[in-house]
Design brief:
Number of helices: 15
Helix content: over 70%
Shape: globular
Number of strands: 0
Structural class: mainly alpha
Strand content: under 5%
Distance between the termini: 54 Å
Low-confidence stretches: 1-5
Length: about 300
């Protein structure tokens, strides 16, 4: 009898699916998908507006169509990456809007600064800033992907399509932050990574400038120097803005966690004075939690601080 019941249930399910061929498309009615699609469309429209803007006000329909094609393809690449590796953005609309605001604001800054001054090193500065903020707010893999997509968009915004020097210089400044800035436990760490990025930018900019204008060593250093300088300047500025970034993106960097783990914190000091046994227990649990988390590749410092205040 049970065999027939199982067969009947399976048959009923098949009949139900055949009667509703669009059952697999029900996810399209999910509010998270709808809002994510709206945010993605907003990003595409704003990017097209920034890339298609011309001071003369003359933008041909063919050029506009080409820009739309490029932006849509890059936007789809970003959407697929987010859906695979950063799914929480599909539910956290505030962070999704913040990501769009960051990329568009950096794109606008690059476009305006280069248009007003004629100096391409401003584009490098915005690429470095975007990569640094994304690495702090998210993780290295996500920051690397989004930084590369931003560099492609920014290169279209500030230079000719056939000019790869701007794109390669921006990537040379952005990728070192994504690779080496896993966490910020000391103030010197950000400066050290900034120096590595500046050196990479200097070498890339010098090489590309020499390939474009061979035989002009003075011109090579004149072009590479500002790019390296703006890379270091952005690192120093972001270091000062770390508390603001933590508030905006609702994150806690390793420097903040180290402050929370300080024994001079009022709550920990009170715990040590009024309940020394519980305080010692929390310290022991914190050490165990940190070792366990680091053994599986997780944030041991976060686990230790959480154990202190559990």
């Amino acid at each position: 009898m049970g065999l027939f019941n199982r067969t009947n249930l399976r048959r009923s399910r098949v009949r139900k699916e055949m009667a509703n061929p669009f059952a697999d498309l029900s996810w399209l009615a999910n509010p998270d998908v709808i809002y994510s699609a709206a945010i993605w469309l907003l990003f595409v429209l704003l990017s097209v507006a920034v890339l298609g803007y011309e001071p003369t006000g003359q933008t041909g329909y063919g050029r506009l169509a080409a820009i739309v094609t490029v932006v849509v393809l890059i936007g789809l690449a970003a959407a697929f990456h987010i859906s695979q590796y950063q799914k929480r953005l599909l539910k956290n609309r505030v962070r999704a809007i913040g990501l769009v605001a960051l990329l568009i604001s950096m794109l606008v800054c690059a476009k305006l600064a280069v248009a007003l001054t004629g100096q391409m090193f401003w584009a490098t500065g915005t690429a470095v800033a975007a990569a640094l903020i994304l690495t702090i707010a998210y993780n290295q893999r996500f920051a690397m992907a989004m930084s590369m997509l931003y560099c492609v968009l920014a290169s279209f915004a500030v230079s000719r399509v056939t000019d790869f020097s701007v794109l390669l210089t921006m990537l040379a400044g952005a990728l070192p932050y994504c690779f080496f800035l896993k966490e910020i436990r000391t103030r010197m760490r950000l400066l050290e990574v900034s120096l590595v990025a500046a050196l990479t930018v200097f070498m890339m900019s010098a090489a590309m400038t020499y390939l474009s204008y061979p035989g002009l060593p003075s011109g090579v250093f004149a072009a590479a120097g500002p790019n390296a300088a703006v890379t270091i300047l952005v690192g120093v500025l972001i270091q000062g803005l770390l508390p603001v970034l933590e508030k905006v993106f609702r994150i806690a960097t390793s420097m903040t966690l180290l402050d929370y783990s300080d024994a001079n914190q009022p709550l920990l000091k009170r715990l040590a004075m009024e309940a020394p046994g519980t305080y010692s227990h929390s310290l022991l649990i914190g050490s165990i939690a940190e070792a366990a988390a680091e053994s599986i590749g997780r944030n041991g410092l976060l686990c230790r601080v959480g154990a202190y205040y559990h």
